[in-house]
Amino acid sequence: MIFVKAGGECTQLFDSYHPLSARRVLEKLCIGSLDARELVVTYNEDLEEGQFFAVLKKRVKKYFRGNQIDPRSSTSYYLKAALILATVALSYCGTFFAFQSFAASLASAVVLGIAMAEVGVSVMHDANHGAGGPGARGVLGATLDMVGASSFMWRQQHVVGHHAYTNLAGGDPDICSAADPDLRCIMPAQLPQPHHRFQHIYMGALYGVLAMKSVFLDDFASLAGGEIGPVRVARMTRAEAALFWAGKAAFFCAFVGAPVLASGHSWAALAALWLASEAAAGWLLALMFQVAHVTEGVKFVEADARGRVPHGWAEAQVLASADFAHGSWLWTHFSGGLNYQVVHHLFPNVCHTHYPAIAPIVLDTCREFGIPYIVFPTFWAALRAHFRHLKTMGAPAKVPSLATIG
Questions:
Q1: Residue 307 is part of which domain span?
Q2: Cα dist. 391→224, 310, 355 in Å?
Q3: Same domain, yes or no: 284 and 300
Q4: Range with the lowest mean pLDDT among 55-64, 175-184, 340-349?
Q5: Could you tell me if 214 and 262 lie in one domain?
Q6: What are the record's GO terms for cellular component (predicted)?
């Protein structure tokens, strides 16, 4: 995890990944001043005694210690990972080799796409945030490379950028700055363009290309340009570079080369099967993440001219995120715990199977400090709220939604 942002501004990452006691060693480890060219955003301190994040950290730590639970790992996580990876292997064979019937292969392709998306939300997501046992973390994190995307680039975009500066224009690479052109208009600071009036319609289709875009375009563009939006990409270690290129080569050989050489389907059928699997993966991934941060009620954080945000970092995570379907075993496992998005952002290296247990602690602490916590009752309610938000933001005379759902 050190290599994710070594040598750069990582205050928010340090605080979210470490216990309060770790701050005591910082002064004696000081080696110099931060490069002034680095993006520096200052959140209000909320780790002092009696403040929100300090209180919350102590309560969550007490829960895990009192119940003798390893917060980073669980047996159910490993069993679930094994089931998902087995499903990828079996549906891959069914899609390209096992069936003569195109209809059967197409059904298998959809299952393959869902299983690849599950690798993203339920397997590699935890591991690349530092969850899981030390021996398994690297292997499970690399499963993203197995399905075509780069785990290294994902950590740069998601861990370094999105988690440190959630919904902050100019800091979070998942959203554009107000001045940049974008297919979407999603925050009050953006001025809607004529095409944004229909974004709640066309984005539903475009979300299906998310997985393909990442595999074929984004990873290589980030490598060549050395940046992902406002995030400067860290220098790869030799092992990271080897995994990047080996993963890309293995994916293209397995998903393109082998089917062309050995499948009984025509090239046109293979193209349709491949597109079906990638579209299924893209839609699932896009919608799981969009309902968490681009929806009614969430806050798009703004910094002033000096880079100061008028919230504590932990408070900003709660304000910029939304949960759905609390208490649902199905959605917790299918979404990889992303239905507890607030909990995930506050404690990113806690294994997602523990989120339902610590969510009440987070909810109670938020109520105590007067911080709104958005929870949609179902995934479908969250999905509708996302597309309503797109429609509202794309309107010529948009009025930002201030509603929260308690």
A1: 2-72+296-394
A2: 35, 28, 32
A3: no
A4: 175-184
A5: yes
A6: membrane
d(CA 127, CA 115): 17
Reported as a single tens digit per residue, the pLDDT across 216-242 is 999 999 999 999 988 999 999 999 999
Model pTM above 0.85: yes
Q: CB burial class (10 A; 0-12, 13-18, 19+) of residue 30?
A: exposed
Domain limit, last residue, from 275, 290, 305: 290
Pairwise CA distance, residues 6 & 59, whole Å = 30
- Kindly compute the dihedral angle of the four CA atoms of residues 273, 279, 281, 286, in this order, to the nearest 10 degrees: 180
Is it the case that residue 98 has pLDDT exceeding 60? yes
Cβ density class 107-127: b for 16+ within 10 Å, e for less: bbbbbbbbbbbbbbbbbbbbb
Q: What are phi and psi of 388, to 5 degrees?
A: -65, -40
Sign of CA dihedral 177, 303, 153, 379: negative
Same domain, 244 and 143: yes
On whether both 49 and 80 belong to a single domain, the answer is: no
Contact in structure between 8 and 234 (CB atoms under 8 Å): yes
Same-domain status, 251 and 322? no
Whether 96 shows a pLDDT value over 50: the answer reads yes
What token pair was written down for 246?
A: 């080996």
Residue 403 lies in a domain: no
